[in-house]
Structure formats: structure tokens, C-alpha cells
Amino acid sequence: MEHTETLTRYMAKFVQGLVEAGVRDVVISPGSRSTPIAMTCAEYDEINHWVNLDERSAAFFALGMAKERRRPVALVCTSGTAAANYYPAVIEAFYSRIPLVVLTADRPHELRDVGAPQSIEQLNLYGEYVKWFHDLALPEGSEKMLQYAKTTAGRAVQEAILGNDGPVQINLPLREPLIPDFTLPGLWEADSATKERSPVIGKRAIDRGYLDSLIEKLKGFSKGLIVCGPQMDPVLGEALAYLAKRIGAPVLADPLSQLRANKYEKNNIIETYDAILKHDEIKQTLQPEFIIRFGAMPVSKPYLQWLTSLNAPLHFIVEPEAGYREPAGVETTAIYADPVIFAEQLAERLDQPIVENSWLETWKNMNQIAKDLLLAESPEEGMNEGHAVVKLAEVIPDQSILYVGNSMPIRDVDTFFMTTPKAVDIMANRGANGIDGVVSAALGTGANGKPVTLLIGDLSFFHDMNGLLIAKQKNLNITVVLINNDGGGIFSYLPQASHPEHYEELFGTPMGIEFQPFVEAYGGSYCLAESWDEYTNALAESYVSSGLSVIEVRTRREENVPYHRAKWESVKEAIGKQLKG
After folding, report:
1. Within this chain, do residues 358 and 464 fall inside the same structural domain, yes or no?
2. 314 has which bridge partners?
3. What EC identifiers does the entry list (predicted)?
4. pLDDT, tens digit, for every residue of 52-108?
5. Which end of the chain is flanked by fewer CB atoms within 10 Å, N or C?
6. Distance of CA 133 to the CA centre of its chain
7. 148 vs 13: CA distance, rounded Å
8. pLDDT score of 168
9. CATH number, residue 381
10. What count of other Cβ atoms lies within 10 Å of the Cβ of residue 252?
11. How many Å apart are CA 426 and CA 93, to the nearest integer?
């Protein structure tokens, strides 16, 4: 078998292996060395290919797609630094447990480490941030090696989804000539997608004996909490609502827990715990005797600080697979079980509530007081970040996605986005918490056609404006709420702000950019909302329009800090009065 036929059949088997293992989408960053794998993906009807020119953007776009579809997405790039540009997204995928199959084309072995152009050391390029690495053999045409190409592709997908989801890398060394020949007879197996060979993965359940002993242990206490941090299981919300009702406990629900939205019962949901726990006098009165946490550590810093101050309550963390996510450094008991099954099992075995009603009512009353104060709108307030979230929650459509930028946007969503019956998936890049790639990740979540709203700050938006190109090329529907406080607003709340001699240059970093020309260059519509009526009208209009819509809300950093602190102080005073009775 001559070179071109060998290359073509080898790549065809590899791509079919991906499809049979469950991959349906591949994001391609164009380049020369990756020609065989890129063209094969584009030629094969059973896999959707997306072309994204910027590798960093492409990787985050794939990450967003995999997050929303809850299945692996493949990435293809050429050799050299192209693969290095995937690194931030690979790290985010690793920590946020998102399955990516990273396919890095490479020079053949004889051109490595000899000064060949566009050649870097790609073996184990991502180190410990991938679950599995394999350097694929050079293409060969024997039946054994064709089967090897197919099974290796399948194994890569399997490794990405076994245990905690995460990224894997396959390095593909390829010799020239690089152009496949798709006219070869018998190249494609028929209906490869119908032969899906994804692994069958069972879900862990806890032994009934342990459940009974756990319940007996918990019955010795009367003040308990359920906490749910960032997680993506769409079924867990209903299971935790049921558990909370049976156990009688308040549920501290992170904005990324998927518990604040949807139609299930939310009577025990506490959304405002971040504002409540900012105040030492209030924290000291709240001493839980046990905590059961689902998902990752919540976004809220006050919760983390409060947790470290508690007098050693029993603390259980429910994880679906092995992993350690306890940055507070407190003593915990890990329960490795499917969170939904565990919540349902525990709820079913409870014959009566464990938590005393007065404890639950205290949290619910505090939550209502805080909600009323946080949502209250004063006539003298101008455009501000908190009410941008409040009004967004009112207008955002049912059956949609809210993607949230890091720094201040996610904290404002934590504070101001309350429970809603709308089915809104709230997502963010909270694995590594970086500001890079947020635009691209949000666009990836909308590749399926679901309406997406991105709430993002000006620095984060600037950092990933390249990501807007695929919105233009694929006419993806996204509404971007751009909070422009001309710089790094979150630093205004940190000790750095007390050093004015260096603050603006090193932390405030004002850019002074007019974003409208950039938005229009990418084919988007732009609106500068200077009143709340303009803002809500622009939001409503964007949801019935196609393509990219950017709504800019300009705020002032020097006003945002006192605005937020006044809100938190009002919560402190009102709840303090209630607790004193």
C-alpha cells in the first residue's frame, strides 16, 4: 500500500473510532501538518466539524460545547506552538472536569529535536493536566495497524469519560505528502455512528447499612446544612430539593449549582448566604452541627472563611468519583457515590426531619430579609452591576443558558440572581477561574442552538474578542451583557486599592476602549444602555434577533464599591435586629 492510501485509510479508521466512541463534534484550527486529520473529519458525514482560526479560542469553544452537550468534543491543531495555545483550556477542562480529546499533529520522529521548523516537544505537552497521553504510531496500512488506529481513538474517548471527566491528548506524527485521497474504494464503514461503543459506566450507590448508620449519627444533631457548589448534573437540583424537604435543612445554593433555576420546589433554598455571611456578628450566631456538601467548593469567599471558623461540625462531601476538593482545610468525610442516587437514598430512609424547624426558619427569614434589600431599587442609584443582574434575571428567556465571566460578574450573580422557575443553565469557567476564553466558551455552549446570554466584564471581553469570529461565521445566537467599569473592578474590593500610587497602573488597568467598532466588525449589533428601560428593551430585542448582540452597561468603579458595601451593610443591620429579637 503506497503512502497516500496508507495515510488515508489510517486517518479514516481513526476518525471512525472517535465516532463509534461517541464523539459527534470536532473543532479544527487550520494548519498544514494537521491536514490529514482535519480533512478526514471534514469529509466524514457522521462528525460535525467547526473551524476556529485562533487555537486558544478554539479550545475554549470546544470546552463550552462539551460542557453543554455533556459529551466529549475533539480538538485538532497543527504542530508547534498551536498546541501550546490550547493549554489554558486544557487546564480549565481538567479542573472543571470537562471531556476534551486533544489531537495535536506533529512532525515525524526523524524531524523532532533537530531544528525542523514548526517543531516543539509535544510529548506529554500538557503534563498532569491530561488524564491520558498517547503518541500515535506513524500511519501503516496493515489490518492490525488500521485496527490499532481505530481502537486507540476509542480508548482516548473512554479515558476522557472514565472516572471524573477530563481532557486527554493524542499526538499524531505525520509524514508528507499530507493530502488524503477520499476516492479510494471501501474507505468508510457503513453507519459507524450506529455502532457506538461508548463504555457502559455504572453509578455508585452507598450500602444501606452505611446509610442507616449515617442517619443515626445525624439524628444526634438538630442544626444541619446542605450545601451545593458548582456542578452540571441537571437532575441533582430536584433530588436535593427532595432531600432538603425530608431532612428539614436549608440548602446553600451556589449560582452554578443548577439549584436556583427550574421548576422544582425551592422552599429551602438560600440564595443570599454570601451576603449574610459577610458579617462576623451574624456568622457567630450560625453554628451548624453537620454539613453535607455536593459539587465543588462554592464561589462565595465568605462561606469559605465561615467554614474555617466553625467549631468542627461533621462535614461530608459527596463526590461521584475520586478527587479532593476541600480548600478550606477542615476535617471532612468523603462519600464517593452518584450524588443523585445518594440524595434519593438518604431521603427515602428518613422517617422524619432531623433538623429543628427553628434553625430552618432562621435561615429562611434571613434569606428573605436579604433578598428584599438586595433587590430593592433606589431612585438615586445609577446604572450599577447588581441591578444589571437583577433585571437580566427578569428578562432572560426560559430554556436558555447564562454564561458568567469571572471576577465581579460571577460574584454579582451569586449576590443578585435569585431563584426562578425558568430553566436556565448557569455556567462559568470555575475550574481555574481565569478570565481567558470566556467569550469562546459561551459561544460553544450555544452551538446546539440554545439561546445564550454572556455576562462579562470589559477586561475579560477584551481578552477573548477573537472568539467573536465564529459567531459571525456560524451566525450563532448570543446576547452579551458587557459590564464596562473600565478596568479590573474586582481589585477595588481588595487591599490593593489602598495603594493609590500603584493601583491604577497595576490593578485598575483602565483601557479606554470603545467596543462598538469591534462588535460591528464581527457583524454584531451594539447598544449602549444608559437607562434601565433601554437595558431591558435591548435585552428583550436581542432574544428575538439572530446573531451577536452586545449590550454595554457602563458603570463607575468608584461608585460600585460603596453601592455593594451599602447593600451588605443594610443586610447586616436588618438581620442583626432580627436575631436580637
Report:
1. no
2. 290
3. 2.2.1.9
4. 999 999 999 999 999 999 999 999 999 999 999 999 999 999 999 999 999 999 999
5. C
6. 23
7. 9
8. 98
9. 3.40.50.970
10. 29
11. 17
In tens, the pLDDT along 448-491 reads: 999 999 999 999 999 999 999 999 999 999 999 999 988 765 66
- Which triple of cell numbers denotes residue 83? 498546541
**At which of 180, 196, 223 does a domain end?**
180
Question: Which among 373, 397, 426 is the end of a domain?
Answer: 373
For residues 29 and 46, state if they share a domain: yes
- Cα distances (angstroms) measured from residue 195 to each of 20, 52, 66, 160, 308: 6, 29, 21, 19, 51
CB atoms within 10 A of CB 434: 18
Report residue 132's pLDDT band, with 50, 70 and 90 as the boundaries: very high
DSSP state of 397: P
Q: Please list the residues that pair with 333 across neighbouring strands.
A: 316
How many other β-carbons are positioned within 10 Å of the β-carbon of residue 361? 11
Residues 404 and 477 in one domain: yes
- Nearest partner of 100 among 65, 57, 149, judged by Cα: 65
Question: Do both 386 and 457 map to the same domain?
Answer: yes
List Cβ neighbours of 21 (8 Å cut-off, separation of 6 or more).
Answer: 72, 153, 154, 156, 157, 158, 196, 197, 198
**What is the domain range of residue 137?**
3-180
- Outline where DSSP puts E strands in 174-228: 224-228
| DSSP per position, 460-505 | HHHHTGGGHHHHHHHT--EEEEEEE-SS-GGGGGSGGGG-HHHHII
Statement: the pTM of the whole predicted model exceeds 0.85: yes
For residue range 374-428, what is the model confidence (pLDDT) as tens digits? 999 877 778 999 999 999 999 999 999 999 999 899 999 999 999 999 999 999 9
Peptide bond into 451 cis (omega under 30): no
Cell numbers found for residue 226: 446542605
In this structure, is residue 200 part of a structural domain? no
The answer to whether the beta carbons of residues 552 and 383 sit under 8 Å apart is: no
CATH number at residue 240: 3.40.50.1220
Q: For residue range 161-188, what is the model confidence (pLDDT) as tens digits?
A: 999 999 999 999 999 999 999 999 999 8
Please count the other Cβ atoms lying within 10 Å of the Cβ belonging to residue 307: 23
Per-residue pLDDT at 504: 63
Residue 333 has what pLDDT?
Answer: 94
For the record, the C-alpha cell of 65 comes out as 460545547
State how far the alpha carbon of 391 is from the alpha carbons of 37, 404, 413, 511, in Å.
Answer: 46, 15, 11, 27
* Secondary structure (3-state) at 50: strand
24 and 148 share one domain: yes
Domain count, the chain: 3
pLDDT digits (tens, 9 = 90+) for 252-264: 999 999 999 998 8
Q: How confident is the model at residue 241 (pLDDT cuts 50, 70, 90)?
A: very high
